[in-house]
Automatic annotation (TrEMBL):
Protein's name according to its UniProt entry: Peptidase M20 dimerisation domain-containing protein
Pfam family, one: M20_dimer
Peptidase M20 dimerisation domain ranges (all copies): 191-286
Residues of the signal peptide: 1-20
The organism's taxonomic lineage, starting at the top: Eukaryota, Fungi, Dikarya, Ascomycota, Pezizomycotina
Family per similarity comment: Belongs to the peptidase M20A family.
Keywords, comma-separated and alphabetical: Hydrolase, Metal-binding, Signal, Zinc
Cofactor: Zn(2+)
Keyword Metal-binding recorded: yes
Organism field: Apiospora aurea
Gene3D superfamilies: 3.30.70.360, Zn peptidases
Amino acid sequence: MKPLGLILSLLSASFSLAIARCARHSTITRSCYEKATPQQFPELLELHKSLVEIPSVSDSEGAVGRFLQDYLAQRGYTVYAQPVEGGDGDRHNIFAYLGGSNRTQVLVTSHIDTRRGTELWGRGTVDAKGSVAAQIAAVESLRRGHGIAEEGGDVALLTAAAAWRRLTTSVSGDGRAVIFGEPTEGKLARGHKGILSVSLAAAGKAGHSGYPEPGANAIDTLVRGLASLQLAELPRSEEFGNTTLNVGVIQGGVADNVIPAQASASALVRLATDRVNDTIAIIERAVHEASPGVQTEFPYSQGPVPIDYDVEGFETVILNYGTDIPNLKGNHKRYLYGPGSIHVAHSDQEHLDVSDLEAAVQDYSTLISKVLTR
Ligand SMILES: *[C@@H]1O[C@H](CO)[C@@H](O)[C@H](O)[C@H]1NC(C)=O
Ligand SMILES: *[C@@H]1O[C@H](CO)[C@@H](O)[C@H](O)[C@H]1NC(C)=O
Ligand SMILES: *[C@@H]1O[C@H](CO)[C@@H](O)[C@H](O)[C@H]1NC(C)=O
């Protein structure tokens, strides 16, 4: 390796390390970003830092929305803040485009809320503020290189406060393509699994634990059903792999010396086939054969979602998480790409390498350009 090349690669390795290391602490310090300032996309790290520093747990995304609104308006975009119902009443989807027409060939979109788990919640470094920062930097870099028309019509940016499904009426993709940003480890998604939510409930008869005979233990009934459910063989497919099941919530009982009268659980199935009804039938059979007293309900389902990946030069991947892609209707191509890994998103280990963020800017630029020149 030539000395210059060596120095450059050492520098870039230390940039990557810097953010990853800093991000392990609960707040990213200013010096993390200073140590890691890249030359290629001047706005990238500053923007990412600003986005990550503004909290935006789902249902209260007001501040980060206003920041983006100002940021984009200052750069000459026409910005429309679409109010979103729910949450603390101060949340907006930010829709931005160049020129006077909001009808564009490409819509580039991601979400700005950071998901709240039951115990841990990520700061959104990866999911999905990495995508938002890289998408904006990509559009800005294309503008600088005259890859998109300054007078508009090519690209619109949409940052959703919570869910794209709220946008279907106002921004359905009439253009050629919508590019979605979620963590895909820098790969182009060929599709993602579907979802089936399962609610289970058992009713019993309360009583004193010392005298079990007249009572009926709802927890015992439920647990027998759950144990059988976990052994059920769910349909798989070549493209999407195994259908998997997670029992994520279990509730019931009041005290260890009282026979519980109620117990319930909920599970989420990640569907690898669109045979939703078959999967429901398998689950019902497994639960009811082992424990007839358990009631099952299936409040929500969505089959696996195939996604376009007809752009050369990308590794591709099937993702096991859901997105709102099926909710954005329209006759357009759909691409899904983003920096970072879902394995660290939503946790206090959430972090992103600067090199991945920079690669994402390049890749979003490529995707946008390829669609525009078709
Ligand atoms: C797009 O522009 C049209 C015409 O000006 C307008 O009716 C519509 O509300 C706009 N939509 C958004 C999301 O800005
Ligand atoms: C899918 O399930 C089969 C059978 O249970 C298992 O052997 C295999 O390792 C699973 N594949 C993946 C990718 O988890
Ligand atoms: C699945 O079951 C529902 C409810 O029973 C029914 O309305 C629907 O048509 C079924 N879908 C298929 C593909 O069989």
